[in-house]
Design goal:
The chain has two helices and no strands. With 65 residues, it is mostly helical. 9% of the residues are buried.
């Protein structure tokens, strides 16, 4: 995630943000472990998901959204 996006307002709707977070929270690794740290960071890209899902130009590193 671009560091500069932390300072920009969200440019996707709340419904899309909730949809994206739902996908992230269901994501697992090959062993079936959650792919999100307790801090809310993606284990693949280490982005804070609560911020990443707010921006249209961001995407899932696994291509899920």
């Amino acid at each position: 995630m671009s560091f500069l996006n932390l300072f920009k307002p969200a440019n996707v709707g709340l419904d899309i943000q909730i949809f994206r977070l739902g996908i992230c929270n269901q994501c697992t690794d090959k062993k079936g472990n959650k792919n999100v740290y307790a801090t809310g960071q993606c284990k693949d890209c280490l982005c804070f998901l609560s911020q990443k899902v707010k921006h249209r130009e961001e995407s899932c590193p696994r291509g899920k959204w």
